[in-house]
Write a structure and sequence with these properties.
Chains A, B: InterPro entries: Homeodomain-like_sf (IPR009057), HTH-type_TetR-like_transc_reg (IPR050109), HTH_TetR (IPR001647), Rv0078-like_C (IPR049484). Chains A, B: Keywords: DNA-binding. The structure is a homodimer. By secondary structure, chain A is mostly helical. Chain A folds into two domains: 54 residues, Arc Repressor Mutant, subunit A, CATH 1.10.10.60; 153 residues, Tetracycline Repressor, domain 2, CATH 1.10.357.10. Chain A has nine helices and no strands. In chain A, helix 8 packs antiparallel against helix 9. Chain A is elongated, with a radius of gyration of 20 Å. At the A-B interface, helix 6, helix 8 and helix 9 of A face helix 6, helix 8 and helix 9 of B. The structure holds a DNA duplex.
Chain lengths: 218, 218
Amino acid sequence: MARRPRAETMQENRQRLMAAARKAFAEKGYAAASMDELTADVGLTRGALYHNFGDKRGLMAAVVHQIDAEMAAEARRIAESTAPGWPALLAEGEAYIAMALRPEVQRIVLLDGPAVLGDPSKWPSQDSCLHATRDAVDALIADGTLLALDPEAMARMLTGAALNAALWVAASDQPDLVLPRAVVAFRQLATGFLAKPGPGLAPTRSGPQIRGLRTTSP
Amino acid sequence: MARRPRAETMQENRQRLMAAARKAFAEKGYAAASMDELTADVGLTRGALYHNFGDKRGLMAAVVHQIDAEMAAEARRIAESTAPGWPALLAEGEAYIAMALRPEVQRIVLLDGPAVLGDPSKWPSQDSCLHATRDAVDALIADGTLLALDPEAMARMLTGAALNAALWVAASDQPDLVLPRAVVAFRQLATGFLAKPGPGLAPTRSGPQIRGLRTTSP
DNA sequence: GCAATCAGATACGCTGTGTATGTGATTAAC
DNA sequence: GTTAATCACATACACAGCGTATCTGATTGC
């Protein structure tokens, strides 16, 4: 028989369990997701689950970590494809807004995550998204672009505003329609941290675009 | 016997159940709170609970509604005891930050609430806090103090930033120490919505006050 | 005073988690 | 190459907790 190394199949099983968990948690919510069902879906039993993740919460932690990492990576990609500095920070925030519209992110990371794992800043993953934003803020403070306040607080408020805006957008009747308004408001709010606020504020001009579009730099 | 009217004792039982629920939900979290224990604590059984609130979630909704209303009332009181207009809006936001430090508010409203009941904007209570902030924003837009963006989005982001900041403060090692920094950052961020940003930004001047106590500025 | 109502209690079933134990395959020792 | 140890996962069990269906004694309206 194809003697596959043990560690390999184990890794694959972990992946499959996490994939199933993402699906179940996103669709039914953490509380309503049955571990029995979930494991059966990928041809395993709860035995495998408890062996790999300790308990249901452990699986949740792993899933949240994974999604969080993906989000941070995507935000970083977007930020890097933008003019560095202030526009990149804005782009990052907008990226979070856009990502938070995905049901998976919304349900797992924003709604159930804090309830199950506590505040994001204490997550095992240490919350990559927050970290990334904090780094960006640090750089912009050193840079003189932003006011020298507590960078942790600033990062926290920016991501908080962005993610909260996203929840609002998602809960609305026509997400596609209100999304641009949220983005505009976010951009405007963020200017509060600028060391020298741009003179002409023309927020609604130049059409707010998300995901890849040029952010108007002051 | 003292023939108390039925509606009266029923009302009292409801109150007692809710009081017990606030305690249990705050201390153990929604998921870990046992309805059997909770009802026994006030000398009742689950029968009373299901009769009055439908199910566990119904009880949670009632509790959240109650706390939310209390928060909104308190915020309003604070706002009214401040110079009307912009300062009042800031005071309101700061009040939310301070209130969110209370374990009850934090655990029930901020962490478990969204997971159990969904996004605050869809809560039965319609989220009084959000509503209050929105009204304040509306007035300040009409007033010309704030930029005329989507008021819903603005309110959402302000409360989002405030509450997120509070969670951050609460999760920190020395809440008392970082709270002032959060307040300063909040005040500064909020200026982003001002129609004409003040020239000299002296956020720490005039002492950010939380619940009546003067925060030490570093 | 009597019947209808109703708040709350009692009893039951069921789902789901966690744990303790079992087992067959893989790995490592000799 | 055989054997012993390990280990990933399965099986079996105990138990807590939610929801519902049914019951009961008190209150209310007539």
